[in-house]
Amino acid sequence: IENREVKFPEIPELINELIIFEYKESKGIFKTGAPSGYHDDCVISLALCLQAAKPKGGIYIGGF
Q1: Can you tell me the distance from the alpha carbon of 20 to that of 2, in angstroms, rounded to the nearest whole number?
Q2: Other CB atoms closer than 10 Å to residue 38's CB: what's the count?
Q3: Would you list the DSSP string of 12-26?
Q4: CA angle 44, 47, 51 (to 5 degrees)
Q5: Mind listing the pLDDT tens digit for each residue in 17-27?
Q6: Per-residue DSSP letter, 3
Q7: Least C-beta-crowded within 10 Å: which of 8, 23, 47, 50?
Q8: What is the pLDDT of residue 46?
Q9: What's the confidence (pLDDT) of residue 43?
């Protein structure tokens, strides 16, 4: 997303979840998700779609 290699529909709920999505690192372990009390369903759905669209042995570059 930061490199503008991923495009997604302008769905307000998705955009809000992307804004609040966070990761934390502790002792070399990374945890990702929404802050307590919020959801990350749309973010995870987008990640799964991108993973499924990725060519075998390559990386996904493109948009919906």
Answers
A1: 15
A2: 12
A3: HHHHHHHHH-EEEEE
A4: 140
A5: 999 999 999 99
A6: T
A7: 23
A8: 93
A9: 96
Tokens of 37: 């009390």
- The three-state secondary structure class of 43 is helix
pTM score of the predicted model: 0.74
With residue 31 as reference, give the H or E element that holds it.
strand 29-33
Give pLDDT tens digits for 31-58. Answer: 999 999 999 999 999 999 988 887 776 5
- Residue keyed to tokens 């307590």: 36
Judge residue 46's burial from the number of C-beta atoms within 10 Å of its C-beta, 0-12 exposed, 13-18 middle, 19 or more buried: buried
Q: Which amino acid would we find at residue 14?
A: L
